[in-house]
Amino acid sequence: MTIRELTFLRPLSHLAMLGAIALSLSAPAVAADAQRIVSVGGAATEVLYRLGVQDRVVGVDSTSLYPAEARDKPDVGYIRSLSAEGILSLSPDLIILEEASGPPETVAIIDKAGLKVAHVPSGYDLGGVPQKIRDIAAAVGKSEDGNKLAAEVDAELVDLKNRLAGVKTKKRVLFILSLVDGRPMAAGTHTAANGIIELAGAENVFADVKGYKTLSPEAAAAMKPDAILMIDRSSAPHEGEGLLSVPAFAATPAAATGSLFKMDALYLLGFGPRTGQAARELASKLYPDLNLAAAK
């Protein structure tokens, strides 16, 4: 995933001036009045578009790739390496920050800038996405529409959970974020990958570890995953090809069934309005006999 160039940023020396201007402003009394919104986080941006307030969005981060029209907005940088100056230079009256936003010092500057800031939790569980949608909708004065959208997503996730209730043996999934010199970087708990695996009715084989960790192929294969899950990368479209034929993985259950699946990163890990669809699609790959792809 590439980061769009920040062509609109002013020199860093203006940071203090921008901060002083922002501090002189009082936060809007009603969030619904916000007409210049900066959205940081692909899911947050997607929610704003679904709520129909995209014309009020004046800037997004580089993970805001869906819908495609969002890519035409000014880019304030990658969600984990934001510039306070880049955001403040857009003169926002509302800044929406997903939980992963950083670095901390940048977030601290934004919080002290005297502007309306909505911090949105990641929500990597069954109730997390609907709550995220409601929080964002409330911040932009679209609570009624947000409740409807949240109810739709909640219904999708609950329906999938019910359909998976009869699964007696959960599939064991290894999520590999990337391969570093042939060594897989696997996802443990407290990650979006762990969350989507659980929503799809499966078990994360690396759940004993928090966050991401690089492993040797032998250590990863020793977990005996039934399936390996990766993300599609435009910068590395062939990543993972041949992985199941690597000696360490060749004897795994995943290799025996050819179960290496790749899905779009934001769709799979964004935890936004499409999460119910993504979880169902992943579940349909893991449990093809349940015919989940055709379920309504």
Structural class: alpha/beta
Distance between the termini: 32 Å
Give the H and E element order: HEHEHEHEHHEEHEEHEHHEHH
CATH class of the largest domain: Alpha Beta
Percent of residues in β-strands: 15-25%
Q: Report the principal-axis shape.
A: globular
Output the radius of gyration: 21 Å
Approximate helicity band: 25-40%
Q: How many DSSP helices?
A: 12
Q: Give the tally of structural domains.
A: 2
Briefly note the CATH topology name of the largest domain.
Answer: Rossmann fold
Quantity of strands, as a count: 10
Protein name: Hemin ABC transporter substrate-binding protein
Pfam family, one: Peripla_BP_2
Keywords: Signal
Organism: Flaviflagellibacter deserti
List the helices and strands and how they pair.
Elements: H1 15-23, E1 37-40, H2 42-50, E2 57-60, H3 84-88, E3 94-98, H4 104-111, E4 116-120, H5 128-139, H6 143-163, E5 172-180, E6 183-187, H7 192-199, E7 203-204, E8 212-214, H8 217-221, E9 227-232, H9 247-250, H10 253-257, E10 260-264, H11 265-269, H12 275-286
Parallel strand pairs: 1-2, 1-3, 3-4, 5-7, 5-9, 9-10
Antiparallel strand pairs: 5-6, 6-8
Helix pairs in contact: 5-6, 6-12
Signal peptide: 1-31
Pfam family, one: Peripla_BP_2
Keywords: Signal
Overview of the molecule:
By secondary structure, the protein is an alpha/beta fold. It folds into 2 domains: about 10-155, Nitrogenase molybdenum iron protein domain (Rossmann fold); about 170-295, Rossmann fold, CATH 3.40.50. The protein is about 35% helix and about 15% strand. The protein has helices at about 15-25, 40-50, 85-90, 105-110, 130-140, 145-165, 190-200, 215-220, 245-250, 255, 265-270, 275-285; strands at about 35-40, 55-60, 95-100, 115-120, 170-180, 185, 205, 210-215, 225-230, 260-265. The strands form 2 sheets. Strands 5, 6, 7, 8, 9 and 10 form a 6-stranded mixed beta sheet that branches. Helix 5 (about 130-140) packs antiparallel against helix 6 (about 145-165) and helix 6 (about 145-165) runs parallel beside helix 12 (about 275-285). The two termini are about 30 Å apart. This is Hemin ABC transporter substrate-binding protein. Pfam families: Peripla_BP_2. Keywords: Signal. It comes from Flaviflagellibacter deserti.
